[in-house]
Amino acid sequence: MAEIIQRDGTWAFDGTTVRITPGLHRSVPLFRQTYGEVAVPLEAISGVAFEPERKRGRLRMRLREGADPLLHATGGRLPDPADPYRLIVDVDRAGVAEYVAEEIRRALLLDQIPKEPTKTYLLPGPPVPVSVRSSDGTVSFDGTQVRIDWADTSDRVKRATGPRIIAVGDLVQVEWLPNSGYEDGFMRFVTRETSFSKLPPDKDPYALDLWGSTRRDLLTALVATAVTARLPHPSTRGDLAYDDEGARRPRLAAAVPPSADHHDVLLRRLRELGELHRDGVLTDEEFAMTKAAVLRGF
Q1: Would you say the pTM of this structure is higher than 0.70?
Q2: Is the peptide bond before 29 cis (omega within 30 degrees of 0)?
Q3: Residue 247 phi/psi, 5° resolution?
């Protein structure tokens, strides 16, 4: 057993699994404490390194592409302190950190673990049911469907549509961008019908606009990961492509509905907007702006 215990957390390696447990100190981010213990099988690891610094160092683990639904759902956008595969190490424990890293590297070599992308998730993601209250509303996932209940501060267009319930079978993917504190984030549930319609997150009834507490809003990644873990693995959904943030994601074109369905979706969305406008939910200005955004998306 190779083990290192720090205020930031604990890594324990038994030859087949690295068990990562977050620390309980207040300096440990809420996301890591909530995500909890992670058991990483050796076959999911592509490498590990200790990065020494003058006052303290860091243990970092790299996972094989496609092995972890958390990394896929967040697209490499998790803030560094919230990364569960990183451990802050005090300078007087640098030798222990080097030993743990070397034991993992030796096992990878002996077991001849490939570095190629995996064809299935090797980590399960967070258990369900999972529910998170964000700045825009509460999002829950029970393993079969997503439910969004809007907050009183949500845009009135969203509140007028009522709770949003989305079956897993209707989902194509989850798009997630964290609230950085300087720029709002969002979590969007992309279905076959909404893959073309990219309304602004504050108007989109399939998206949570993350503008409040960065500490709390980061927890939406729990739901994004739990849903992603139950969607088809990216290796089964066609070629992967790099997005604008440099993360590799499945090409959405594989899930694009036929052109006839595309036209029906557009008409349905415009009809819904017209009804909201006639009922007085949308002002003339809001209706014009939202209609223009829908048409641009299509």
Answers
A1: yes
A2: no
A3: -90, 145
From the number of C-beta atoms within 10 Å of its C-beta (0-12, 13-18, 19+), residue 167 rates as exposed
Residues 6+ apart with CB under 8 A from 162: none
Query: What confidence category does residue 265 fall into, taking pLDDT thresholds of 50, 70 and 90?
Result: low
Helix axes 284-297, 259-278, angle to 10 degrees: 170
Query: Residue 277's pLDDT is what?
Result: 79
Q: Is the pLDDT at 96 greater than 60, yes or no?
A: yes
Query: Cα–Cα distance between 91 and 57 in angstroms, integer?
Result: 7
Nearest to 132 by CA among 58, 224, 269: 224
Q: For residue 56, how far is the Cα from the chain centroid?
A: 29
Q: Report how far residue 91's alpha carbon sits from residue 180's, in angstroms, rounded to the nearest whole number.
A: 30
State the Cα–Cα distance between residues 186 and 208, nearest whole angstrom: 5
The reported pLDDT for the residue numbered 163 is 92
